[in-house]
Design brief:
By secondary structure, the chain is mainly alpha-helical. It has helices at about 15-20, 25, 30-45, 55-70, 85-95, 110-145, 165-190, 210-215, 225-230, 235-260, 285-310, 325-350, 355-360, 365-375, 380-400, 405-415, 420-425, 425-430, 440-460; strands spanning about 150-155, 160-165, 265-270, 350.
Length: about 450
């Protein structure tokens, strides 16, 4: 058992206790961040005179050697060590001798693990932002291509009014823009360096915490050493943001599953993102969308778990906080995989434009426009509502759309109708005359697409 402590203990830790306590099986993910933090730490220690420049260089060379050996496979991280910090320090001492024992001067595992977790989370936020941006670019491309692809808009999962595919996809574009903004907020709020906080009360060594923060690309040092080692707000915020991303992906997946059904036939999912049945040869299943929908609960579980873990922890550090890692790692990996696969599915999906438009017509999505036609010809809206309701009943009985009724049939229910009713209730007219910003009309959508062009171009 390779441990960084034990002087006041008179016997070995029980193996079961050691295994229960150890975190090497999952915090080995931190090896890059741990070594980077240690290099910054000893660089600062040398600058304030705690280490000599020669000691600094020996330690940094040793740390870089460990990093290289891990990445080439020459050294394996094993369960012999309690955690990644023990592994790095023990290997360093093996390589450079007693000088390696000075690595931990002015530092505790508490502020060290807080730093590692922040560096890791920060790196992952940047990577997730990149994936969300790629997805938004895919959605933006679909919007540009389908600005005049008519389809039914829904409320209560009932066909309501005609929209376009660009407009529908644009709703998800707005969701993912907010997701991207949340990730930016998390990055900015968490980007302060805890290293130098010690176990909870700082240290008597003359550390230059501003220098350490600068070396690690933080905005500055954290301002309270107790909070520094016990803060996991940024983990909670990230898991909350990831849960929201998954909720958006899940909603979109649900719609794709519906659109892919035999009853709708709005979309065709590429063979590369579908699977078949072991018994039914005709099946083509939307498994990626279903798995994304299913994995949403997994990410929600991580958020609930960390909130529950943190709710009763007094200041400052407590071992309970070790539970933040595995669930966060899993949630991050899950979300990254889901965004990537969902993006691939959307990029290769084809849309059945005639079927979408036909569905809008036969769902009476132009009924409101028929009522508006009557209102514009002097009929009170409440009367117009009732007249069009009668027309819809007639269409249902005849199994046709409003577009298919004869003018004679229109006039039988209301003599106000004239030949121009057909133009007034066409899908094109219904959509085109809705041109307030945010609506599905062509001109309104062109403005939104221009806004999104500029937005995507400005993203870092």
């Amino acid at each position: 058992m390779a441990q960084l402590w034990g002087g006041r203990f008179t016997k070995e830790t029980d193996q079961l206790v050691y295994n229960f306590n150890a975190s090497i099986s999952f915090d080995q993910k931190f090896y890059k961040q741990d070594i980077r933090g240690s290099i910054a730490h000893v660089t600062m220690l040398a600058s304030v005179g705690v280490l000599t420049e020669e000691e600094r260089d020996q330690i940094i060379d040793g740390l870089n050697g460990i990093l290289n050996d891990i990445e080439t496979g020459a050294v394996e991280i094993t369960s012999e060590y309690e955690d990644i910090h023990s592994f790095v320090e023990a290997n360093l001492i093996d390589r450079i001798g007693d000088v390696g024992k000075k690595l931990h001067t002015g530092r505790s595992r508490n502020d060290q693990v807080a730093l590692d977790m922040k560096l890791y989370t920060r790196d992952e936020v940047v990577e997730i932002k990149g994936l969300v941006k790629e997805l938004m670019e895919t959605l933006h491309g679909i919007m540009k291509e389908h600005i005049d692809t008519f389809m039914p808009g829904f409320t209560h999962l009932q066909k309501a009014q005609p929209v376009t595919l660009a407009h529908h996809v644009g709703a998800y574009m707005e969701m993912f823009k907010r997701d991207y903004s949340r990730l930016n907020d998390i990055y900015d709020r968490m980007n302060y360096c805890p290293l130098g906080a010690g176990a909870l009360a700082g240290t008597t060594y003359p550390l230059d915490r501003e220098q350490t923060a600068s070396l690690l690309d933080f905005y500055g040092p954290t301002l309270n050493s107790m909070d520094s080692v016990s803060d996991r707000d940024y983990v909670i915020e990230l898991l909350s943001a990831l849960s929201t991303i998954m909720m958006h992906l899940s909603r979109f997946s649900e719609e794709i599953i519906i659109w892919n059904s035999n009853e709708y036939k709005f979309v065709s999912i590429d063979d590369g993102f579908s699977t078949g049945s072991s018994i039914m040869p005709q099946k083509k299943n939307p498994d990626i969308a279903e798995l994304v929908r299913g994995k949403t609960g997994r990410v929600y579980g991580a958020l609930t778990s960390i909130l529950t873990t943190m709710k009763g922890i007094p200041l400052a550090y407590n071992k309970d906080m070790q539970e933040d890692k595995e669930l966060t790692f899993d949630a991050i990996d899950t979300v990254k995989g889901c965004i990537s696969l969902f993006n691939g599915m959307m990029k290769t999906m084809t849309f059945n434009k005639p079927q979408m438009e036909d569905s809008a017509k036969h769902g009476f999505t132009n009924a409101t426009d028929a009522a508006d036609y009557l209102v514009n010809h002097g009929v009170p809206f409440r009367d117009a509502h009732g007249i069009v309701g009668q027309l819809v009943l007639l269409c249902i009985d005849k199994q046709i759309s409003l577009d298919d009724l004869s003018l004679e049939e229109y006039k039988k229910i209301s003599p106000v109708f004239e030949e121009d009713i057909y133009e007034a209730i066409s899908m094109k007219t219904c959509v085109e005359k809705r041109n307030t910003i945010g609506a599905p009309g062509h001109d309104a959508m062109e403005k939104v697409i221009a806004v999104n062009d500029a937005y995507l171009a400005d993203l870092k």
